[in-house]
Amino acid sequence: MERCRPDAIVHLAALSGGVGLSINHPATLLRDNVLMTLNVLEAARSFKVKKTIMTLSSGMYPANAPNPLREGAIHEGYPHPSNASYAFAKRLVDISIKAYRTEYEMNVIGLIPNGIFGEHDSFNYEDASMLPALIRRFYENRNNESKIVIWGDGSPLREYTYSKDIARAYMWSFFHYDDEQVLNIGSTEEHSVKEIAHMIAEIMGIDKGRIEFDPTKPQGIQKKSTDNSMFVGMSGFCYTPFRTGLEKTIQWFVDTYETNPSLLRVSSKLKNEIRDLN
Q1: What's the total number of domains in the chain?
Q2: Distances from the Cα of 195 to the Cαs of 100, 125, 190, in angstroms?
């Protein structure tokens, strides 16, 4: 910050991933994400940054909150236990925005994406989120007849937003929004895990009969549909259809895997951190 002296900060960094990461490393997720939030805000305050955008998560909402999830429900109950530490770290962003705006009169806002996917995602098996992990697994098993096992029964519903839409939403908010009220900015198009898996198989030309769901494994919250009406009402925003974004993401992954695999992010985020701590 001292070297760059930026006019603005768009803070999207986080330690996050699939349900396995959340269950096995709750302290790490809590610590790292809280420290990032406070460090970024303190840096913005110290260097008088003109505008800062902080990022929350639709995964922070209470497990029993009525769907669709509205911004006012963030603190009205306990989050899903599979994701509690990350959820509370992200809820703190809402409190921090209000506090820093009140005491220091900082121009800081908060945006709430839901699932993000797209080119250049993290495709590692250890802690990637569900969608990119499935893309890699389907591709690497495309030429055999083995079963492709997916955690849970396939019924949970998920919203995913194409990463380029997220970028456009952030830029609109940067230039046109200044209020302490955090905003849901993700697409509300929703598909079950089973539907998503079948789409990936269809796009890759893989027999859907090879997909097997394991209901003995954790699958996270059943449904977390968001209400983006405040954001869309102000911005008039239109989203890329999920299938279109998925096809582009898969095409990029396949092309990169076959022509320049060194560009793929396939190493664990957490392994690097544990090594550094040790």
Answers
A1: 1
A2: 42, 21, 10
Domain membership flag for residue 277: no
Interval 247-258: pLDDT, tens = 999 999 999 999
Contact by Cβ (8 Å): 191, 117: no
Tokens of 69: 């999830």
- CA 137 to CA 125: how far, in whole Å? 8
> Strand (E) positions, the chain?
8-10, 51-55, 108-112, 115-117, 148-151, 157-162, 183-184, 190-192, 211-214
Q: Give the CATH number, domain containing residue 241.
A: 3.40.50.720
Reported as a single tens digit per residue, the pLDDT across 2-55 is 999 999 999 999 998 777 788 889 999 999 999 999 999 999 999 999 999 999
In a domain, 204, yes or no: yes
Q: Are 170 and 10 in contact (CB under 8 A)?
A: yes
Write the burial class of residue 241 (CB in 10 Å: 0-12 exposed, 13-18 middle, 19+ buried).
exposed
Residues marked active site are found at: 86
DSSP letter (8 states) at residue 122: B
